[in-house]
Amino acid sequence: MDRHLDAHCEAILQEYRDALPQCKAVAKEVYNTLKSTFEQAGLLVAAIEYRVKTENSLAGKLELKGGKYKSLADITDIIGLRVITFYTDDVDKVASAVERLFVVDWDNSVDKRKIHEIDSFGYLSLHYICSKEGFPYRFEIQMRTVLQHAWANMNHDTGYKSGVEVPKVYLRNLSRLAGMLELVDEQFSLIRSELTDYRRRVRALVASGNLDDAPLDGDTFRSFLELKPFDVLNRRIASVNQAEIQDVPLMPYLAVFKMLECHTLGDVSKMIKDYGEGAYQIACYQIGLTDLDIISSSLAPQDVCIAAILKRGGGRAGIRSMFDLLNGPSESNEMMAEFLTRQAQDLPFMNQK
After folding, report:
1. C-alpha to C-alpha distance for 101 and 104, rounded to whole angstroms
2. Among 146-150, 228-232, 254-258, 336-340, where is mean pLDDT lowest?
3. What are the structural domain ranges in the chain?
4. Helices then strands (H, E): number in the chain?
5. Predicted model pTM
6. How many CA atoms lie within 13 A of 118 on its CB side?
7. At what angle do helices 88-101 and 168-208 cross, to 10 degrees?
8. How far apart are CA 240 and CA 298, in angstroms?
9. Handedness of CA 127, 129, 130, 134 (dihedral sign)
């Protein structure tokens, strides 16, 4: 495309050409710095994007308003980065990181989240104009949520805000949709905050030993496992063969304890107490006549559940259901259930009232 640039603008364009390799290197460097910083902080973001303005785009900008720029250093978006977060409150966390990493030009930065127009949702980005030591040009970092990003892209695609008059019925529908998306954005952050508070309360309950007040779910069971509730039984079983204990994930047993109608961590703790001896007897039968010198940490919860199923009259079908939950349905689960049911019939715990 032919551009009509005066000598001043052509000089800026030439400065851009000379600086382009350095700009590309700095853009990549800033991207890597942001990425590593977020990873180290445990801050999960949806995406980090970066770009260097193309010569054609810069020429178009200079053609329109080149007179306002003395040099390339006056143009703040030669390098542009965008950080897209999942939650609205993470935008502030990203901003805090950016403020620590780079020098922010507050006079030229803008927080568009303070705009209160009814159709402003997709434009609520936080824009920082930044600089870094040893690099003469400023760069822009935009921060916004996934939903804000999607909305902005949809508006751009439909031509909204393009200067073409849009019928009021479409503007009304767009505004309604923007309001809905803004509410969704807020609710996602609110739900995450409430879940964080719930997990904090759960950890406090478990730490205090109030297991009967802790409902059995993924968060409470995970906290419960941190107390190593099966360690005593596993060590007792391991002592039969002087075996080592290999740690494996025990979260799959959450589904089994739920199947056995445990509703609180207190119910699980009571099962360990009530059926621990039966579990030990089953384990002794399983490994007592072998030279097995390594056992899995899952042996204790597995045999506690088996002892509970058998003592409650669940029989082979109950054990089969347990193995189906843990391993997925298969014929080998049926064979194992039949074997354990048959062998456990003569164990002392089965004959105790």
Report:
1. 9
2. 146-150
3. 7-184, 218-351
4. 12, 8
5. 0.62
6. 7
7. 80
8. 16
9. positive
Cβ atoms of 26 and 52 closer than 8 Å? no
What residues pair up with 131 in beta bridges, in sequence order? Answer: 103
Which helix or strand (DSSP H or E) is residue 50 part of? strand 47-52
Mean pLDDT of 266-277: 95
* 201-224 tens-digit pLDDT: 878 888 888 899 899 999 899 999
Q: How far apart are the first and last CA of the chain?
A: 92
Q: Which residue has the tokens 């309604």?
A: 176
Q: Give the pair of three-digit tokens for residue 215.
A: 């409902």
Burial of residue 102 (number of CB atoms within 10 Å: 0-12, 13-18, 19+): buried
**What is the token pair recorded at 123?**
């434009």
Share of the chain above pLDDT 90, in %: 62
CA distances 54 to 29, 77, 79, 105, 114, Å, are: 18, 11, 10, 23, 31
**Cβ atoms 191, 183 nearer than 8 A:** no
Q: How far apart are CA 126 and CA 109, in angstroms?
A: 8
Structure-token pair, residue 171: 């503007």
Q: Which residues are 85's β-sheet partners?
A: 145
Instruction: For residue range 137-153, list pLDDT tens digits in order.
Output: 999 999 999 888 887 77
d(CA 48, CA 32): 9
Q: Structurally, what CATH architecture does the domain formed by 7-184 represent?
A: 2-Layer Sandwich (3.30)
| 140: three-class secondary structure by DSSP | strand
Helix (H, G, I), strand (E, B) or coil at 246: strand
Task: Look up residue 118 and give its amino acid.
Answer: I
Identify which of 273, 271, 263, 255 has the alpha carbon closest to the alpha carbon of residue 323.
255
The single-letter code of the amino acid at 237 is I
